[in-house]
Amino acid sequence: MNRYTWRTAILEGSMVLVGLLFLFPIYVLVILSLKAPGDQSAKLAPPLQPTLQNFSDAWQQGGLGGALMNSFIVTVVTVALTVVLAAAAAYPLSRLGTRWSRFTYLGFLAGLLLPAQLALLPLYQTIRDLGLLGTLAGVIIVNVGGGMPFSIFLYAGFMRALPAEYEEAAAVDGAHAFRTFWAVVFPLVQPITGTVIILTAVATWNDFLTPLLYLSGSDQQTITVAVYGFVGQYGAQWNLIFAGIIISILPILIAYFFMQKYIVQGFAGGLKG
Amino acid sequence: MAIDTAVRRNEAPPRKRRRYRGFAHSVWWFVLPAAALYVFAVVYPSVRGSLFAFTNWDGISQDPKWVGLDQFARIWSDPNGLTSVKNTLLIAFAVTVVQNVAGLLIALAVNSRIKSRDVLRVLIFAPVVITSIAVGFLWQNLFTPDGGINEALEAVGLGALRQNWLGDPDIAIWSIMVVVFWQFVGYSMVIFLAGLQGIPEEIIEAAAIDGAGPIRRFWAIVRPLLAPSITINVMLSLIGGLKLFDQVFIMTQGGPGGATNTISTLIYSNAFSLGRFGYAAALAVVLSIFVAVASIIQYRLLALQER
Amino acid sequence: MRKAIAALPVVVLTALGLGLAGCSAGPQSNSGGANGGTVLKMSGWADDDVAAALIKKFEEDNPGVTIDYTGLPWPGITTQINTELVSGTASDIVVVFPGNGGPIAAQTLAKGNYLADLSSSEWVSKYNDANKAVMGADGKILMGANASTIIPAIYNSQALKALGATAPSTFSEVLALCGTAKAQGKVAYGLSAVAGGNYPYLPYALSASLVYGPTPDFVEQQTEGKATFAGSKWTTVLDKYRQMVDAGCFTKDATGTSLDVAQEQVAKGDAIGMVAVSPQIKTIEGKAPAGTTFETAAFPATDNKSETILPVGLGAGLGVNAKSKNIDLAKKFVDLYLSETGMKIALETSSLFPSAPVEGYTPPANLAGVAEHARSEKTFSFPDQTWPNASVNQTYTEGLQAFIGGNSSAEDLLKQMDDAFKG
Prior knowledge:
heterotrimer, B: 307 residues, mainly alpha, MetI-like fold, 14 helices, globular, disordered N terminus, C: 423 residues, alpha/beta, D-Maltodextrin-Binding Protein, domain 2, four-stranded mixed beta sheet, 43% helix, 13% strand
């Protein structure tokens, strides 16, 4: 069963081809970011005189350093809050068999259906009334609230599949409900925590409309908004945009690279339910 | 998994429920913070937003009037309304089918013995982590008439296939779907991969020894075991397809000539360019209903096959 | 991993603390700076050198006042400023577009009384009635702009010379240029017919000469129901556009070509010129090889030179938030912006075409071909600034894409525009 047959070789060949197709747009992204504005070399060929000028220009003109820091703060806090709150909420929802818990769970799931545009203006006005416009805290609250349905959905599915014996043992030992959750249940759902971390991080890091709306009017910007700033009314600075895009995706790609085994594990765990 | 199992599990035997009774009172505190933020950021503003659907508010003036269901009636007489409903359903259907079939095939392939599997897993997932705005810009550039796609076709001798990818109203909607597919097939792949981890190799091997062919083996053994991943994948791609906005907005803004409008882009342009906030809210309510109905139907169908 | 997770609450609390600290020190406190001075907030364009220069001057003239500037990109700026005005969170000074038809156009915003009345300002007298008509509503002046936007044909001088041609001044010469360029494997006019492209401007130029010049009160006639798009010379406008498309005047596959690519064609001489708004000249120059020069000419619609009317419209400008706590100070800034001094500062910083005559102003070489024409009587503002609602413009830009692509007829398009005009 573990032989590398001619069939495997054909499969390998065709998959490499598929991989190249997926790589092509990324290849174009990289070469565009390395070309100087007036570069005359052929479109798809690597630039004759590659330059890192675009990267330093984008970095300075877009203030990408500060923007990266803001994105980082927003992402880390959003992810941390989402993990703790969603895991805590999913725990009783997956354990209690009452009509109320079922109702609450479905109420959370309903959030997956609502289009974001519906809530846009009223939410903006509420955030304004709280004086949170222009602060990272406003963006974080909006992100965490909006992320609850999907994260609770993932956690609840996984927790239902967990045998209750460990908690019961803890309860017999007289552990408080919160202690049981924190010391027994939370460590057991670690794989799904990995999934929630990476998916929330990707979504938060890449979010555009929320930071654009809630941080405007302040000197704080996130990386996606800063990159979008290179699109002008009378034409875009493409070389800077593409360099900015690469700067903006590198941190998240690196994070993904180190977290990738948790993703597959996490989904695998979540699917057992 | 998903809702059905949740519901079934909730009908737990009474003995078990009694055991949790003491615990039931204190644990509602676990739900409270999440519920509070969720209600604050999603439920309350959505309800308030949907109330605008029953007014003639233009987004500017300070005295909106109640107009009952007039805004909903308008959808059927708006030429863009019909195209966008059609496009939204087409995209959701095509994306759901293609992304899941391709995602499953790719997952099976990178779960096999091929040597490049680890590289391919990272490569195919990479587009998922790129922001949709960037994906839109990148593909807009690739799709220009003398851009990367046409040049590449020329280079491999397929120059006859050159197209005006985003400029031809008959093609543009398909071009957008290609982009969505490129961006999200890795997402489906990862979820299927996770599902495949749960299937012991021995089961497949046993079937092979019994003489079952690869297709029969897949259909009879792997498919039922993958049912939970199929459910979650179909649900996510369907909801994503119905709500599609960023990619269309960046690449075509609904053009050429309104040919690629989706309900989401129409909501945006009505609310923010045309000053028809009430109408935009009505469209958003209709979209929510679509998503809800589609989710329930697909869930019922898949629940049947999970059994 | 377990340890890391146990540390989560600490991270959360620390970060929350940071967030809240950031909140209290945030820009919400907009009255009273650290040193007791006044802080004015302004929402303008991203990377606007003119605004920066004016702010510097204003802060020098008014010690104790600082201006907190937010630069916003296109097209997000319209949604952003609109949402902020409606929600009462807008800056004291905001970008406002003249006329009607957008989320932050003067007449749109007038409906909610979001802008302060500037009618008593000194600079108002510098403008004629046509200008004033788009600077506000109901007789009030709600915004001012220091620059006019012209819609000329912009030509790459070297490319023109290589063809042995000069800038056309009659419509027959335009078609002839198309033929000559085509014979050389080039196109006469760069065209981008995607959202944000330059495709709406050429019909504006044609309609100035064919519709609005001969019938200056065309919009009033439309409002009174005496005229329609479909029953006017707008049919000729679209006919001529069609003739040009059929004669191969434009970039191939224009419906899929981004503005950026079309501009690059002109910059490199692959297209001889393009009809676009004058601020785009600077963008095109930025894409051109060193030594390339550009010239402009009014775009003709007939074979009688003297019938050519040049579209000249007020550009985007500034208005004052009616809910501002420092209305007088904000008005003072707008006064500086539109004063002779302010305009001179703007002209030193950037190559714009001032909206009112400025002493000693000589137009840059690339505007020399239209500068005199722009100051004459033979101009008309952009039609979209006088359309009564945003939906006419949306119908026009969307329908025109289909028209250029050959997917809809002139009649259908004009009929739809008539429907949108009626509301």
